[in-house]
Amino acid sequence: MIYRGEPVADQLFYLQSAQNLATENRYLMDGFPTAYWPVGYSFFLSLFFKFSNYFSSDSLLVFIQCSQAILSSLSALLIYLIAKKRMSFSFAALAGLLYAFYPAAIAMAASFWSETLFVFFLLIAFYFSTRFDPQNKPTVPSDIQSMYAKISLGILSGLAIGLAAYVRPTALLYLPFLSLNKTLWDFKYQFKVILVRGMVAMLLLLPWALRNHQLLGHWVPVSTNFGPNLYIGHNPEMNGGYMNSSTMDSIQVSGGNEAEQSQKLCRLAIQYALHHPLDEIKWLVIKITRLLSIQRTPL
Question: Is the dihedral of CA 282, 285, 290, 293 positive or negative?
Answer without folding.
Answer: negative
